[in-house]
Design goal:
alpha/beta, 8-stranded mixed sheet
Length: about 260
């Protein structure tokens, strides 16, 4: 996809991949980086105008020292929507990206966002369903918690090229800065979700052991207009393990939530 750079602030420029035409869809990747949503963005670009940024600090991009929280990222992306005068935006976020999407919707006073899709999102605290600490797991443990077919997707770090291993380690270090304390959630977010009026579709892999489907159900229930769909034979990244089922649900939500006359 064509990539350009958006200068948000004097010390922050973001690489954005854009493709397609139609309703704007902002696609936000999780801790695994932009590769985890690349095929999803390619699919959605056939029916919409997709905008897929790389979060500051991921894949070698610059993260200014002041950008230390998910709320900072939410404001950055709202700024981009405002600067581009984008309306009727569907925000799709995977894992950490879903958390960013929820924080954006809480702060979207201009009404630019008219739909949300949160895919196995982190970001809230559910007392009975704690989020697994991925920083405490080795590569095998991460695979077992993340994938329905962990043996198929597990990569031994010894078999990963040095450059790729360094990229992954840097990404994890950035995620620890932005989401490590408190771990992977905003203590205030769950109760704030009830103020979000736009339709929210929460997609969950049935085998996700980082954030369980029960966690997803509590997340969905906190929205005024939230709905949970559990995807069989998928873990934390259903867009990779079950792309057809995941894309079909997102496509339907894209059509159902379009509002060409959002709040001015």
């Amino acid at each position: 996809m064509p990539t350009n750079t958006s200068s948000v602030y004097a010390d922050l420029s973001l690489p954005l991949s854009e493709a397609g035409a139609g309703r704007p869809v902002l696609i936000l990747h999780g801790g695994g980086g932009p590769a985890t949503v690349a095929s999803l963005a390619q699919h959605l670009s056939r029916i919409s105008h997709t905008i897929t940024p790389v979060h500051p600090g991921w894949d070698g991009t610059h993260r200014p020292a002041w950008l230390t929280g998910i709320d900072d990222l939410a404001l950055v992306y709202l700024h981009i929507l405002r600067e581009r005068r984008l309306r009727d935006v569907l925000v799709v976020g995977s894992s950490l990206g879903g958390w960013i999407a929820a924080e954006m919707a809480v702060r979207d006073h201009a009404g630019s966002i008219t739909g949300l899709v949160l895919i196995d999102a982190v970001g809230v605290q559910v007392e009975t369903e704690p989020i697994t600490d991925v920083f405490a797991l080795d590569a095998r443990g991460v695979a077992e918690h993340s994938w329905h077919e962990s043996d198929r997707h597990h990569l031994d770090p010894a078999d990963v090229p040095a450059e790729e291993l360094a990229r992954r380690q840097t990404n994890m270090a950035t995620m620890r800065i932005l989401a490590g304390d408190p771990y992977m959630h905003d203590p205030k977010l769950l109760r704030r979700l009830g103020h979000i009026q736009v339709p929210a579709l929460l997609l969950w892999g049935e085998s996700d052991r980082i954030v369980t489907p029960a966690y997803g159900a509590a997340y969905a229930d906190a929205f005024t207009n939230g709905r949970l769909e559990v995807i069989p034979k998928a873990g934390h990244l259903p867009q990779i393990e079950q792309p057809e089922a995941t894309c079909a649900l997102i496509d339907a939500h894209l059509r159902q939530t379009s509002n060409p006359f959002p709040q001015q």
